[in-house]
Each structure stands twice: as structure tokens, then as C-alpha cells.
Amino acid sequence: MTNPLSHLTSDIRDGNPYAGETISRGIEYDRFEASTHYINGSVFSHPYRAGSRALVQRVQPMPVISGKEWADFGCGTGISTLELAVQHPTFMITAIDASPGMLELAQHKFHKPFAESSSLGELRNVKDTALKKYLQEFRKESESYHVNVRFMLGDLRNHSFISDESLSGAVAYQFVHWMDKEEGGLLKFFKDLHRMLKPGATLAWSTAAHWLGNYGYDKDVYPRGERWFHDNAFKYHFLDELAKRVPFTANYQPIKPPHTFNSVRDITAQAGLVTEKAGMFYHDYDLGVFMTNHIPGIARDIITKGMTADKPMPEEEQQRIINECLQACVVNPKAMGDTQRKIQFVPMFTTTKQS
Questions:
Q1: Domain that includes residue 158, residue range
Q2: Residue 191's domain is classified under what CATH number?
Q3: What is the reported pLDDT for 320?
């Protein structure tokens, strides 16, 4: 069995293992997508594609809005971009991401040229059969739509590179919570969104479940603790291991949601926008992905914000401790045996600029 810790490195930032310069970041993202399937009735799909499909289905183009210029914020490797193009083939789509590695793979998947010749070598050296098949099928499907798509490298926290009132709409799959990394960042993003959208236009967006209290939805409809993978026993055994190695304050709570639906709705209202709930998408989640995508971010949050020590811990030491705790948990049957809490919830919303 492949070691689930093999591609953990010390440059995982902000809990995001796919932020980086090289195309290998995009390849790792798509490796999970290629190897995992989601079944809903008669629909058989990969999880990110299924989530993107559910989100884009919330898009209702308003006939009173002229133009077909749409954006895909945080497009990643182009999965949500393709779904937007398939459901709305007349749209002209600007797909934006801050990770050069993710964007390079998206360009390849849409038959677009990209600058780094070394990336072609990495793509040719892909040995994973499922990933190779997935990339081939994606490129075949995108052939009909690639002329309607352009990619832009940019960080929406720092740049305003889309013209005023130029967008007829936008989507953002699992993206908006990244705008909340800095004080006031979320309000800044929504104010800039107000500037970019035409009157009457809408952003359909989904976000990380742990970013909103009870996912932003009624706890009686979506009970948090019974099925959610973030409450999996693995996490609590990991925290026990971390506590043996890192002195942190006893009252520190590592993943307390920073927002509720009401707080986000109020922030968007300050920006002149109206936010509404648009439904929930959910699917089984892989424990190995939880280890590599989420656990390091939780651990770094504890180490950097909850430590009782005066001096900050070097990143290399943080990574050593994280790997050590993970290794202790993967050989612990109690940590690995929780088969009930394995659901990923993806809350969806719409944010509209009133006419």
C-alpha cells in the first residue's frame, strides 16, 4: 500500500497542500480525483466533479443581464471550469487561480500552452494508470469548450484585475474561505465582487464545512457529529499524540468555526450584496486525504496559535512532529477504525448584486 504520508512536505502553507509553483501540485490534486468515485443514484462521477456539477446547477443566468462573461474563482485544475462550460456552452469563462502548479495542469487539460517545459516532463512521467486515463478523458471532453476558456494566474486577495461590472456571473468551488485568511479579507473580497459583477449578477459558491458553524445550516437537518469526517476518531487520536510533543494551552480549541451563515450574510450585506443558502452536497471522504489535506493544517494552527512556549517553532520542526504523530496514528487500530464519520459536507450559497 502506498504510504499516505509520502508527499507531505514542509511547504504546505495555510493548511493547503496544493499551493505551490510546480505542476506536481496539480497532479497530486487530480490523483485523488482520478482514484475516487462518487455514486448518486444513476450518476457515476469523481467527487470534485460531482461537487462542481451540484454547484453549477445553482447557476441561473438572468435574461435581463447582457453578455456571457463569467468567472471561475479558484479554478484549481479546471474541474469546475469544465462543468461550467458543459452546462453553459455559450459562456466565455475566465478561470483564475493563485497556484501556478494547479493552473499549469488546468491549461494542459484544456489544450492550452504553458511556459514551463519541465512540466511536460512531469506529465509524461505519470505512471498512475487511473490518473493517465482521467487526464485523457478530461482532455477529450474539454476539446469542445476550450476556445471559450482563458486562464489567469492571480490572487484575488491582492489584485483587482477584472474590470468593473464586467461579469454576468461567477462560480467559486471550495474557494471563499481562502479569502478569510487575513483580517478584513472576506469583506474586501465581497466588496471587490460587488465591483466586478453586473447589476443582477450572482456568484454561486461552496466552501469548507469547518469554516461555518454547523456548515451554515440547521443542525437538525445536517447533524454535525454523527457523520462528518472532521469528527473522525483519527483526529482525536492525532491530537492526543500532538499533546505529548507540543505544550499548548488547555483551553485552546483548534478548529472552532470562524463564521456562521448569519455572519457571512452580514459581511456580504456590508458589501452591498445579498447571500442565500443554496443547498448541501455531500459524499464519502477518504481518510488518507484527510490525513494529508486537513490534519497538517489543524496541527499547524495549534502549534502556531496555541503553544505556551515563547519562541515560535521552526517549520521543519513542525513538520517533523506532524509526521511523527501521523505515523503513530496509522498503526493504531482505534485511530484507523472509525468507519461512521466519513462524510464530507459541502455547503453551497448564492451571493447576488441587486439590480
A1: 24-224+256-285+342-353
A2: 3.40.50.150
A3: 93
pLDDT of residue 39: 61
In the prediction, which pLDDT does 149 show? 97
> How far is the CA of 88 from the CAs of 60, 82, 83, 145, in angstroms?
10, 10, 8, 10
- pLDDT score of 10: 30
The residue length of the chain stands at 355
For strands 69-73 and 169-172, give the pairing.
Answer: parallel
Query: Comparing C-alpha atoms, which of 342, 50, 345, 58 is closest to residue 222?
Result: 345
In angstroms, rounded to a whole number, what is the distance separating the alpha carbons of residues 321 and 329?
12
* Distance, CA of 176 to CA of 258 (rounded, Å): 13
CA 125 to chain centroid, in Å, comes to 26
Report the number of distinct structural domains present in the chain.
Answer: 1
Question: 346 pairs with which residues across the strands?
Answer: 281
Angle between helical axes of 100-109 and 129-142 (0-180°, round to 10): 60
Question: In 10 A of CB 147, how many CB atoms?
Answer: 11
Nearest CA to 135 among 120, 148, 152? 120
Is residue 317 situated within a structural domain? Answer: no
Spans of the chain, pLDDT less than 50: 1-15, 221, 252
